[in-house]
Amino acid sequence: xxxxxxxxxxxxxxxxxxxxxxxxxxxxxxxxxxxxxxxxxxxxxxxxxxxxxxxxxxxxxxxxxxxxxxxxxxxxxxxxxxxxxxxxxxxxxxxxxxxxxxxxxxxxxxxxxxxxxxxxxxxxxxxxxxxxxxxxxxxxxxxxxxxxxxxxxxxxxxxxxxxxxxxxxxxxxxxxxxxxxxxxxxxxxxxxxxxxx
Length: 197
Known about the structure:
Blueprint: H1 2-18, E1 28-30, H2 32-35, E2 38-39, E3 44-45, E4 50-51, E5 59-62, E6 75-80, E7 86-88, E8 95-97, E9 103-106, E10 110-112, E11 114-124, E12 127-136, H3 152-161, H4 180-189, E13 192-193
Parallel strand pairs: 2-12
Antiparallel strand pairs: 1-5, 3-4, 3-13, 5-9, 6-8, 6-11, 7-10, 11-12
């Protein structure tokens, strides 16, 4: 009898601990899962004279456990790889805590383009739930990277890439070619800069 009670108690402890362990198969990152990348953009709009992040770079991490239950109060970190290929604005936020639905939303203020294995990793409660091979921003020119300002030099490169399958850093939606949807994202970002510039 004591053995049975002990086993039930152990099962409850393990079950309670498992409730806070994310299961990557049930977690989602919207819309990054569709893009295969995390998109960033400096968040200060010169035209508006205020911080005004663009909607296209907003993404929501939903953290769930092995029972497909949401994990509230999960600590989520965005880890960018390959330093030097991206620039973060001083107000960039790379950590957050999920709400009661297991959701936390990010809108990373930054530029540049990082391509390659583990360009971006998303960690929840110390467990990796996602790894993407790209972190992209409209603030990017090949050879110089990002400078914290989406300006004419960025537009020149984007325009030269339009219609091309050979410009992965400007293919924001990850469909393989720089097209109208990518232009819409670039146009929304034009004139945005890091607040400190």
